[in-house]
């Protein structure tokens, strides 16, 4: 495993669309491990998308304190309700703002073994899933901030 450099602020890689992963192989598993290590190295790290370390692949890691999720090619299957809560991002250190997100989402993704799974996220997990999946389309939370703190 290796710690990777987190891309920040105006880095153009954060604005690009990530490509789907064709095969979940050892390279992808290594990427996911590096992403997890990089996320855990940061005190406020709850999630990280591959583009944040400069890799334009549809892969994210999330840990909101309930265990590590490694998601490949994640897609939102359904969303309901709304929430407005505070977000930050490892690519925008020092910035916090209120963002509107669905209250609950169901996400379909491949796990690190290439097996399809569905994750239902409510509240904090729904927010994190949406935030990380936005990164895969070049969207960052500052695009959606209603009010900075
Ligand atoms: Ni982020």
Pattern of helices and strands: HEEEEEEEHE
Regarding quaternary structure, what we see is single chain
Span from first to last CA? Answer: 35 Å
Individual helix count: 2
The description of the largest β-sheet is: 5 strands, antiparallel
Radius of gyration: 14 Å
Estimate what percentage of residues fall within beta strands.
25-35%
User: Any low-confidence stretches, pLDDT <50, length ≥5?
Assistant: none
Tell me about this structure.
This protein has 149 residues and is of the alpha+beta class. It is 19% helix and 32% strand. Strands 1-2-3-6-7 form a five-stranded antiparallel beta sheet. The model has no long low-confidence stretch (mean pLDDT 97). The structure holds nickel (II) ion. The site of nickel (II) ion has 6 residues, from helix 2.
Q: What is shown here, in short?
A:
This protein is α+β, with helices and mostly antiparallel strands and 149 residues long. Helices cover 19% and strands 32% of the residues. The longest helix has 16 residues.
Task: Spell out the key features of this protein.
binds nickel (II) ion; single chain; alpha+beta; 5-stranded antiparallel beta sheet; 149 residues
């Amino acid at each position: 495993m290796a710690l990777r450099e987190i891309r920040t602020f105006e880095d153009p890689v954060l604005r690009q669309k990530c490509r789907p992963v064709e095969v979940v192989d050892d390279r992808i598993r290594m990427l996911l491990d590096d992403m997890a290590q990089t996320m855990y190295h940061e005190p406020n790290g709850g999630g990280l998308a591959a583009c944040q370390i400069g890799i334009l692949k549809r892969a994210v890691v999330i840990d909101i304190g309930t265990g590590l999720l490694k998601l490949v090619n994640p897609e939102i299957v359904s969303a309901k309700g709304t929430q407005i809560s505070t977000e930050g991002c490892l690519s925008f250190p020092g910035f916090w703002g209120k963002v509107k997100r669905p209250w609950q989402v169901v996400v379909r993704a491949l796990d690190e073994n290439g097996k399809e799974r569905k994750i239902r996220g409510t509240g904090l997990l729904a927010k994190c899933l949406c935030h990380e999946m936005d990164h895969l389309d070049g969207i960052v939370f500052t695009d959606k901030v209603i009010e900075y703190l």
